[in-house]
Amino acid sequence: GLAIPVGCTEGVCDPDTVDAFDYINLRAGVDGRWRFLPKTALVLETDLDLRTYLRATDSPSALLLRAMGGLAGLVSAKIVVTAKLGWAHNFGETGGDTLIAQLEGNYLFSPTMSFKGGYARTLNPVAAYGLFRNDRGYVEARALFGGKLVMHGFLAVDFLGFQDPAEPRSDTLVSLDVGPEYQFKPWLVGAVGYLLSTRS
Fold first, then answer.
1. Among residues 19, 33, 56, 57, which one has the fewest Cβ atoms lying within 10 Å of its Cβ?
2. What is the pLDDT of residue 151?
3. When comparing pLDDT for 176 and 15, which is higher?
C-alpha cells in the first residue's frame, strides 16, 4: 500500500483520502491592454474561478475573483518592466481575500540572450484548506545558439500560506528547471528538461 510521508501528521497526508480531493474548476477571464504612449501600455487582468469538490465534505467550494491593473512598457531599448497591483476575493462559503501583485523585469542582454526576474503574489483555491496565498520570486535565463537551439534555466521560490484558521500551515517550495529546446521545423519543437523541486 501507499505510505504516509515521514513527519506529516495532517489528514491531507493520508494517501487513502486522495480521491476526496477530486474537483471541477471553471475559469472565465477578461484581459485588456491599452497603449496610451508609444512604449507604455495600461494592462488589466481579471478572472473568476468556480471550484467545487466532487466527494469531499470538508473541502469548501470557492468562487474566487482576481483583478489586477498596472503598466507595462520599455524602460530602455533592452529593458521591459511590468507592474500590476490588485485584489483577490473569495465569494464562497469561507470567504477570504488578499492583495495580489506582480513586478517583472525582462532584460535583453543580446539578440540571442535574455534574462527575466520578478515577484508575484496570488490567491488560489485548494482542497481541505480552502485557499492558499502564493508569494513567488523567480529568475529565468534563455540563450539561443545557431538559430534553433535554446538553452533555458528557471529558478523559483514559492512561499505558500494556507488560510484555514483551524490548521494554519506554511510551506516553502524551491523549483529548478534547466534544459535545451530545439526547433526541428517551424511547427515542431523538441525539448528535454531536468526539474528539481523541494518542499518544506
1. 57
2. 96
3. 176
Provide the residue type at 189 as one letter.
V
pLDDT grade for 11, boundaries at 50, 70 and 90: low
Q: What are phi and psi of 20, to 5 degrees?
A: -70, -15
HSE at residue 134, side-chain half, CA atoms within 13 A, is: 16
Q: Is 89 exposed, middle or buried (0-12, 13-18, 19+ CB in 10 A)?
A: middle
Strand pairing report for 169-185 and 149-162: antiparallel
Instruction: Tell me what the pLDDT averaged over the chain comes to.
Output: 91
Angstrom distance (rounded) from CA 130 to CA 148? 44
Partnered with residue 76 across adjacent β-strands are none
Phi-psi sector, 54: left (phi>0), alpha (psi -120 to 50), beta: alpha
